[in-house]
Specification:
The protein is an alpha/beta fold and 240 residues long. It has helices at residues 22-28, 33-53, 73-89, 91-96, 112-121, 141-157, 168-173, 220-232; strands at residues 14-18, 58-65, 99-104, 131-139, 185-188, 207-210. It has one domain: Undecaprenyl pyrophosphate synthetase (3-Layer(aba) Sandwich), CATH 3.40.1180.10. The chain has a six-stranded parallel β-sheet with strand order 3-4-2-1-5-6, sandwiched between helices.
Length: 240
């Protein structure tokens, strides 16, 4: 038996966005790569505000993947500078706007000052908030699943759980996203039609939308259109 979700009941609780295309946007305009990333941050601010207006509870932004370390060292340096600026200057502003910020991923590879500021960001999370902004930084879904399997293996070796207790819930409880609902919709900008190691376990039944335009060109109008299209879809969750 399955429950057919009609369009008027498609509540969007968790939205994930793969913000792709910053570098190509900059190149198309003859600008340095860093300018594309800066404009990408401005677009993110607009979309966060739009998500609040749409009463979306969880918004996960794929900001920096675990594979991004392979990029040119100069670009990595620029990205870390932007991350530092964002953590120091934007977190409190977002908090004042009702945004709770958390980080998804392995922060152990970052410099100490970045790790400290990530922890400080959680201090702003005590107040009442309108939306959970989850920043996927140094995140990779395969890494996340591997980490979960390792945790479960340790429990088995220490006789804390029985092999018959290893089920979907046990795996989900050991993912980075423990306590966060699965995404209902994942949007990707930049022209590619793939998930690129983003929330692979959690997106099993997520609706997917792909936009050709790069992230810096993604507008509030595009966002509203995506939400409207999502609500018109018939979600079956594996049913016929």
């Amino acid at each position: 038996m399955f429950f057919k979700h009609s369009s008027n009941k498609n509540i969007l609780k968790h939205l994930g966005i793969i913000m792709d295309g910053n570098r190509r946007w900059a190149k198309s305009k003859g600008l340095q790569t860093i300018e594309g990333h800066k404009q990408g941050i401005e677009t993110a601010k607009i979309i966060i505000k739009a998500a609040i207006e749409k009463k979306i509870s969880f918004l996960t932004l794929y900001a920096f993947s675990s594979e991004n370390w392979k990029r040119d060292p100069a670009e990595i340096k620029d990205l870390m500078s932007l991350l530092r600026f964002f953590l120091k200057n934007e977190i409190h502003r977002l908090s004042d706007s009702g945004v709770k910020v958390t980080v998804l991923g392995d922060i152990s590879q970052f410099d100490d000052d970045i790790k400290i500021n990530i922890k400080k960001a959680s201090l702003y999370n005590e107040k009442k908030f309108k939306i959970n902004l989850i920043m996927a930084i140094n995140y990779g879904a395969r890494q996340e699943i591997t980490n979960a399997v390792q945790k479960i293996c340790k429990k088995l070796l220490n006789n804390k759980i029985d092999i018959n207790q290893v089920n979907e819930k046990e795996i989900e409880d050991n993912l980075y996203t423990n306590g966060v609902p699965d995404p209902d919709l994942i949007i990707r900008t930049g022209g590619d039609s793939r998930l690129s190691n983003f929330l692979l376990w959690q997106s099993a039944y997520a609706e997917l939308m792909f936009f050709k335009k790069p992230w810096p060109d993604f507008t509030k109008k595009d966002f509203s259109k995506a939400i409207s299209d999502y609500k018109d879809r018939e979600r079956r969750f594996g049913g016929k």
